[in-house]
Design goal:
Elements: E1 11-18, E2 21-25, H1 31-37, E3 46-50, H2 53-75, H3 81-84, H4 87-99, H5 106-115, H6 119-153, H7 157-161
Antiparallel strand pairs: 1-2, 1-3
Length: 171
């Protein structure tokens, strides 16, 4: 896991390397002195600045959000985007059918027909998968929010460094 280790007393250099994308150079980086002296090559513009605690928190929160999304992505099967767009319809029809097994399920019927399985078997599978996904999403969202609260409440870099971001799922 990427964990930024900045202190609020160090100066950094931001180098623009592409539109809306900057690279931060730490003083310990061998390029730092060359950039300041103008001998690093074709860098025409750079900004030297100090990182305060709030900027450091933003880095931690960005990292936290990436970690949470990465955990979710690695926990779920891969589906093509077009198929993902059908999930809400599938879930809605399956949940309606669970409440009233005479409810119409025209889209799931097409899916079952083309998949070659019984419509009721598929409706049950969809309902179970939707519930599992919702529970997983809520568990990870809750953990992510807890870590964000810890980050926001930290007052020093040492407190930020002590936060161990790790997502888990209990069965």
């Amino acid at each position: 896991m990427y964990s930024p280790r900045f202190t609020n007393k160090e100066k950094y250099i931001a180098i623009s390397i592409a539109e809306n994308h900057e690279v931060l150079i730490e003083p310990s980086d061998e390029r730092y002195a060359d950039i300041l002296s103008g001998t690093y090559g074709e860098i025409e513009e750079f900004i030297e600045f100090e990182f305060g605690i709030n900027q450091i928190k933003y880095q931690y929160i960005d990292n936290l959000n990436l970690e949470a999304q990465s955990f979710m992505d690695s926990s779920l099967p891969k589906y093509p985007d077009f198929e993902k767009l059908t999930f809400e319809t599938q879930k809605s029809e399956a949940r309606g059918w669970v409440l009233d097994n005479t409810a119409q399920t025209p889209n799931v019927d097409i899916l079952a027909l083309n998949r070659g399985i019984d419509r009721e078997v598929l409706l049950e599978k969809i309902s179970v998968k939707a519930t599992k996904f919702e529970q997983l999403s809520m568990a990870i969202a809750g953990q992510r929010q807890k870590f964000e609260d810890l980050i926001n409440n930290a007052t020093t870099v040492e407190e930020l460094d002590a936060i161990n971001i790790s997502f888990t799922v209990w069965q």
